Amino acid sequence: MLDQDNTALVQVRDLKMHFPIHSGLLRRRTGAVKAVDGVTFDVMRGETLGLVGESGCGKSTCGRAILRLYDITGGEVTIDGTAIGQMGQGALRPLRPTMQMVFQDPQASLNPRMTVEAIIREPLDEHTRMTGAEKADKVAELMDAVGLNRRFAKRYPHAFSGGQRQRIGIARALALNPKFIVCDEPIAALDVSIQAQVVNLLEDLQEKYGLTYLFISHDLSMVRHIATRIAVMYLGRIVELAPRDALFGDPLHPYTRALLSAVPEPDPTRARARDRIVLQGDVPSPANPPKGCNFCTRCPAVMDVCKQVEPTYQQVQPGRFVACHLYETTGTADPTAGHPPHIS
Amino acid sequence: MTDRAPQASADTILPAGDPTPPVLAVKARSQWRDVWDQFRSHRGAMASLVFLIAMILFVLAGPLVWRLDPTALDIRNKDLRPIVNALWGAEKVSWAHPMGTDNLGRDLMAQIMQGGRISLAVGAAAMILSIVIGTFVGVIAGYFNRLDGLLMRLTDLFLALPLLPLLLVMMLLFRDPLRAAFGPEQGIFILIVAGIGITSWMHTARIVRGDVLALKEREYVLAARSIGTPSRRIITRHLLPNVLSPILVSATLGLATAIITESALSFLGLGFPPDFPTWGKILADSVPRMTAFPERVIWPGLAISLTVLAVNYIGDGLRDALDPRIRGL
User: Fold this and answer.
1) Chain B residues with CB-CB distance to A151 below 8 A
2) Which residue of A315, B33, B39, B182 has the fewest CB atoms within a 10 Å radius of its CB?
3) Nearest CA to B121 among B190, B53, B213, B167?
4) Sheet holding A28-44, edge to edge
5) How many Cα atoms occupy the beta-carbon half-sphere of A168 within 13 Å?
6) How far is CA A67 from the centre of its chain?
7) Any idea what the Cα angle at residue A20 is, between residues A17 and A24, rounded to 5°?
8) Interior CA angle at B205 toward B123 and B150, to 5°?
9) B4 and chain A: CB distance < 8 Å anywhere?
10) Domains of chain B by residue range
């Protein structure tokens, strides 16, 4: 449909993750928080897809839903040729080694009562039949790979710094030789100096093991550094997906432009010359998104049609996808761009 | 891993280009040794452990040394005062009965020893039973949303039951079949332990459920799910060790409650047979003449409260010792 490239490792089609809201005396279902509401993209083998957006736009939920840590509301996820969207958790278990996750808060993602060795060994305990000595060797090897001293294997997570803890989390994610790792803001909780170390480590590991990342972040400069393609999310939907340089060089969607204009510019003369787009208002509630385009309440280029009709997510240039009415009529690459948009 | 594993393990055994030798050989101290070291540094807990062991020895080995029959009547020597009273007055004291005797001339020390066996056994067994039930219900209710409502309403139901009448009904219904099946003392023991156990698990269940509800949203549980750890192992590996502190606290409190409840049952004549001493019953029997003979309340009272205090301290020390953050590793 969008990109039938057969090198796609992960295909996400119209993924929806709604969390029900129960209220009233009888706890009836009265609505849903549409955390992820129809997201479609591919992640190619060996690439890093950056997923950016402001807080609460559904980035993390999207990452977790792709790994089926939630039971998704709708859509399909295909990882390495296997459709896992509607699979039961039991059937999913043998596939878990393929896909792993690195979490945002290295403090919270490590069990305080387990030693580092036990933490890194847990995936091995669950999925391999190695002997104790083999596991110990593998743990030591993983600790080497992420730059942790093997002497620390018997220590507990609280004895480590934030960066070291994140390395423990990465070692755990690597233990089963996954193909696909969702990095859920892996650097958001770290110092800037440590951020660089961790990002470099992730890049080295990617090169070494041929990993594919979905890199979720709100740090645009870091995403620019690590990602090959970038998807921008707003209120549960992807508004724009483009190769990194194209996105940073020529953002199409008004929201992307606003987001990029918020990146600090180190050169003061250029910073002064640049006009910042400051969005007005707040993000609407995902429980009650606006009619039409989700961004229509804050869009500087809003048109009448935006408030009525939901824009379609379509390819406007080779490899560039955008969901905006500005491009629906002027779209050049997509022959279907001019068709009457469907009303949702 | 299939292609890298053999090579990797060979690497670790023979670090060819690695300048640092493999340091895995650094002897890792056993985790339980660390726990014990931390426990020893808690003075109250150590003192309590010594006290509790002494108390257990006293009630277990004591009757072998102090061979008086706790139920033997000796009317001529009734109402003897404890030996310490000799310090301040010409009281009726006798070295043959250092803690004194009761109004029927039964030796108090022998009674405390014999009663301690029962009280400690009932307290420990009932506490373990209630902790097991409470933890099980709490973990299941907290972890599986679907069962939460049902199990918590069940807990509320048990909390709303008037316990003493319930226990009385249980005693009446099941005493005779159990006595027939296990003998008079065993049968009553099982009945009392079961009765106290299944009427005192609710607070533990609520506390554990609350903690599990908070813990299961933690990222390390999510990480375990992303690894593919099944729920049962998430519970045993990640949740239970982290709810250990509240469980230990309710366990230590539960022991005290169990001993007291047993005494209440004995007081009502529904526990052990009347000639069968327990700490609770010695205490209850002595209450009417407490003003004249305070020691008869003080001895069992001291035994109960010091045991409970000791268990509390041990639980405190154990909780600290089992927490790696406090252990400072």
Assistant:
1) 23, 26
2) B33
3) B190
4) A28-44, A8-23, A74-79, A82-83
5) 35
6) 11
7) 170
8) 135
9) yes
10) 120-322
The alpha-carbon gap from A338 to the nearest alpha carbon of chain B, in Å, equals 42
**Burial class, B129, CB count within 10 angstroms (exposed 0-12 / middle 13-18 / buried 19+):** buried
- How is domain B120-322 classified at the CATH fold level? MetI-like fold (1.10.3720)
* Dihedral angle, C-alpha A80, A86, A87, A92, nearest 10 °: 50
How far, in Å, CA of B14 to CA of B155, rounded? 59
In sequence order, which residues have a C-beta less than 8 Å from that of residue A94 and are 6 or more positions away?
B228
C-alpha pair distances (Å), A70 with each of A14, A244, A272, A299, B213: 15, 29, 45, 32, 17
Residue A28, phi then psi, degrees to nearest 5: -75, 155
Please report residues of B whose CB lies closer than 8 A to that of A64.
222
Q: Cα dihedral sign for B34, B38, B39, B41?
A: positive
A53: left (phi over 0), alpha (psi -120 to 50) or beta: left
Other residues' Cβ atoms within 10 Å of the Cβ of residue B302: 13
Tell whether ipTM is more than 0.85: no
Domains of chain A, CATH where assigned: 8-255 (3.40.50.300)
Residue carrying structure tokens 């905006």: A324
Q: Output the tens digit of pLDDT for each of chain B's 329 residues.
A: 444 444 444 444 444 444 444 444 445 556 778 788 888 888 888 999 999 999 999 888 888 887 777 777 777 777 777 777 777 776 677 777 777 777 777 888 888 888 888 888 888 899 999 999 999 999 999 998 888 889 999 999 988 888 778 888 888 888 888 888 887 778 888 888 888 888 888 989 999 999 999 988 888 898 888 888 888 889 988 898 888 888 887 888 788 788 878 877 776 777 777 777 888 888 878 888 888 788 888 888 888 888 888 888 888 888 888 877 776 65
**Is the whole-model pTM more than 0.90?**
no
| Dihedral sign from CA coordinates of B124, B126, B129, B135 | negative
Chain A residues with beta carbon closer than 8 angstroms to that of B322: 113
Instruction: Give the residue on B whose Cα is nearest the Cα of A154.
Output: B28
